[in-house]
Amino acid sequence: MGEAHRRITDFLNRFSDAVSSQDAKSLCLIFSLSSNSSFLLSLSDALITFQDASRVMRQADRYSQYADILLPLFRAIQSYRLKNLVESYQAFEKAANAFTQEFRNWESAWALEALYVIAYETRILAERADRELASNGKTPEKLKGAGSFLMKVFGVLAGKGSKRVGALYVTCQLFKIYFKLGTVHLCKSVTRSIETARIFDFEEFPLRDKVTYMYYTGRLEVYNENFSAADHKLSYALSHCNPRKERNIRMILKYLIPVKLSIGILPKTSLLEKYNLTEYNNIVLALRRGDLRLLRCALQEHEDQFLRSGVYLVLEKLELQVYQRLLKKIKSDDLFRSVGLSQIFFKLWVSFDGGTVVFENRNSIWVYSEDCEK
Question: Which class for 75: exposed (0-12), middle (13-18), buried (19 or more C-beta within 10 A)?
C-alpha cells in the first residue's frame, strides 16, 4: 500500500512540476495512454491497489487545483490497464476537456505538443472503444464523439497568436476520423477554415502536418474527380514526405499513381516494385500496349483492393486512354491500311459490349477481350 501511495504521489508531482515549469515533454508522457510506458503501467497498478487516489490529491492545493484533469485521468489509466476501453475513453475525454480549458486560459502555446498527444490519444482510444462496443453487439459511437471533441479543440486553436499553428495537426486527426467513419463531407468545414481564413498562413504550419493535410485533401480531390488539384496536392505530399518513411510514401502513391495515369503519365516499374504497388503493373502495361483486355483483367483481379482505396472508378475510366493508344499504334502500322478505318471503329465499338476484337496482319496481332481466363 505504501509503494502504491508513493507512485501516485510521484505522478501528481510530475504533473504539477510540468505545468509550473512549462515542461510540455513531461506532459506528453503523462497523457500517452496507448504507449504502454512502464511509468503509466506502474501507476495503473498502484491505482488498482490504492483505491482512494482522490484523498492523496486533497493533501495539497498544487494537486487539487487540477482535480478536474487528474481524477478522470486516473480513471482512464486504471480502466485502460483493466482493458475496459469504453470506460477508459469516457474518462480520458473528460480529462482532455478539462485540460483544453486550462490550455485556453494559458497565454502562450507552451503546452501545444501535449495537446497534440491528447488529440491523438482521444482518436486512438475512441477507435478501440468502438471495437469493444461492436464486439459486444452495441453501436459504435465513441469515434463520432471524439470528432465532436476535436472540433472544440480546433476552435480553441483557430484564433490569433502562436496557438494557431496547432490547428493543422488537429485538422489531420479530424480527417482520419472522418475517413474512418465514411463521413468525408465533414472535412469541408475545416478545410474551408484552413484555406480561406485570414488568420492562417499555410507556410507557418509544421512540415509534417502540411504533408498529412495535402495527402488527405488530395484524396478528397480524387473522390471529386478534380485530378489537376489532386495531382498538385498529392505531389506536394510526396515531394515533402520524409524519404525514410516508406510506409507513408506508399500511402501517397496509392492515390497519386491513379491520378497520374488519368492525365497520361505512367510510373516506372522500378517505382511500383520499390513500394510494393505491383497491383498497378498490368494497368500500366495495358496503357503502354493499348491492351483493353489486360486492363479489364487487372481491374477484376484487384477489384476489392481498388474499391477499398476508392480509386476503382478512376482506374475504370482509363479505358478511353487504352483506345487512344491503340488507335495511335494502328495508325503507325500497316494494319491501318490493310483493315480500313470503318472496320476498326466497328470492332472497337463491339468491344465496349464485351466482345473480342482481333486485328491481324503479317506484323501485328492484338486481342482484347473481357475473358480473363484466356
Answer: buried
3-state secondary structure of 345: helix
Cβ atoms < 10 Å from Cβ of 105? 6
List the grid coordinates of 361. 496482319
Helix axis angle for 292-301 and 319-331, nearest 10°, is 160
**365 — phi, psi (to 5°)?**
-140, 125
> Any idea of the CA torsion for 34, 39, 45, 49, to the nearest 10 degrees?
-140
Contacts of 175 (CB under 8 A, 6+ apart): 187, 190, 212, 213, 216
Question: Rounded CA gap, 202 and 206, in Å?
Answer: 9
SS3 state at 226: coil
- C-alpha cell read off for 56: 492523496
Please give the grid coordinates belonging to residue 177.
476520423
Domain range list for the chain: 319-368
> Please, is 174 exposed, middle or buried when counting C-beta atoms within 10 Å of its C-beta (0-12, 13-18, 19+)?
buried
**Single-letter residue type at 35:** S
- Residue-wise pLDDT for 203-227, tens only, equals 889 999 999 999 999 999 999 999 9
CA separation for the pair 70, 75 (Å, rounded): 9
Q: pLDDT tens digits for 41-99?
A: 999 999 888 877 777 777 777 888 999 999 999 999 999 999 999 999 999 999 999 99
Beta bridge partners of 367: 358
H-state helical runs in 50-206:
53-57, 61-64, 67-81, 85-105, 112-135, 142-157, 167-181, 187-196
SS3 content of the chain, % helix, strand, coil (to 5): 75, 0, 25
Question: Cβ(132)–Cβ(85) under 8 Å?
Answer: yes
Which amino acid belongs to residue 317?
A: K
C-alpha 225, offset from chain centre: 19
What value, to the nearest 5°, has the Cα angle with vertex 258 and ends 257 and 260? Answer: 65
Q: Do the Cβ atoms of 33 and 80 come closer than 8 Å?
A: yes
* Residue 248 CB contacts under 8 Å (≥ 6 apart), including other chains: 211, 241, 242
Place of cell 510506458: 37
Q: Report H helices in 224-274.
A: 227-240, 246-262, 269-274
